[in-house]
Specification:
The chain is α/β, with parallel strands linked by helices and about 325 residues long. It is built from 10 helices and 8 strands. Strands 3-2-1-4-5-6-7-8 form an 8-stranded mixed sheet, with helices on both faces. Helix 2 runs parallel beside helix 3 and helix 6 crosses helix 10 (about 310-320). The chain is globular and about 55 Å long. The termini are far apart. The mean pLDDT is about 85. This is Retinol dehydrogenase 13.
Amino acid sequence: MLSFLLNLSYIFATVLVGLIVTFVILVIVLRITLEPIKGVCKCKTELQGKTVLITGGNSGIGLETAKDLARRGASVIIASRNVEKSEDAVKYIRGTTGNNKVEYRYLNLGNKDSVVKFAVDFNKEFDSLDILVNNAGCGAIKRKTTEDGIDLLMQVNYVGPFLLTHLLLDKLIASKPSRIVNVSSLVHRFAKLNVEDLKKCGSNSDLIRYSKTKLCDVLWTRALAKKLPHGVTANVLHPGLVKTNIFEFLHPYLKKVLFLLIDLLYKTPVEGAQTIIHLCVSPNLDNATGGYYMDCKRIEPSKIAQNDDLAEELWIKTLELIKQ
C-alpha cells in the first residue's frame, strides 16, 4: 500500500511539473508570437505652449499618457465623468511632474448632451487644441441604450468620441499642426460590421460588441484622415492588453486569472501608453495620417478595416446619428 501511494505521489508530481513546464513554454510562445517587442517612445519632444486634451486621463494608460505629456511641458486637460478620481489624478500629475498646467473637465461620453456641452465650453475657454487623445472607453457593459436608441457600449467607445472630435475640429484646424490620436484594440480583427445595424451593435456577445466598437474606431480614423486639411493628422492604435480598470465588469475570480496572464504576457499601463505618446510627439509622424499602430510601429489592421467604401458608409451613418 505504501509503495502504491509513493508511486501515485511520484506520478502526480511528474504530471504537475509537466503542466508547469508546458504552461511556461506556452507563455513564452504567446509572448513572442503576439507582442514580441514592447515598443517604447524614445522621442524627447518638448510640448511647451501646446494644449492637450485626453479623455479618460484619470487612470490606466490615459493617466500615464497625461503624466508624460505634462512632463514635456504641455497644458493637459483631463476629460472624464469620474470627478473624484480625476481631481486626484490632477494632483498626482502636478506633484510628479511639477507642471501645474493640468486641469480637469467633466465629460460623459455616454450622454450626447454632455459631449455637446463639453465641446461648446472647451471651444469658448481654450484658444487652441494641439493634440486630442480619444482614450476613454469601456470593456463591456450590460446591454443598454441611450436616449437616442444607441447601444451604450457603441456610444461610449465610438459615437461619443466621434461626436467630440467632430465638434472640436475647427479648433484643431485653427491650431495646426495638430494631431488626433484614437485608441482602438487588436480585437477589432474579430469584428464584422453592418452600418445599418450600428445603433444596436448587432450581437448578444459582449466581446463581439466590444470588437465592433473598436473596428468602428479604426474605420472612422481612416475616413477622417482623408477629410482633414494638411497639417492635421489622425491615427489609431492598439495599446496592448493592459491591466486597467476596463476589466472591472469581470467576476473577481476570472479577473484574477486574467490579470495573472496579463502580468506574464502583456503590459503595464506605462508600457501600454507608449504608442499613444509616440503618436502624440514623434517628429517623424508630422505628416503621417490614417495609420494603425502597435508598439510604436505602423502595421496593417484587419482587411475589413482597410475597406475605404465601408469607412465612408460608416462616416455618413454616424453623422446621421449625431445629428438626431
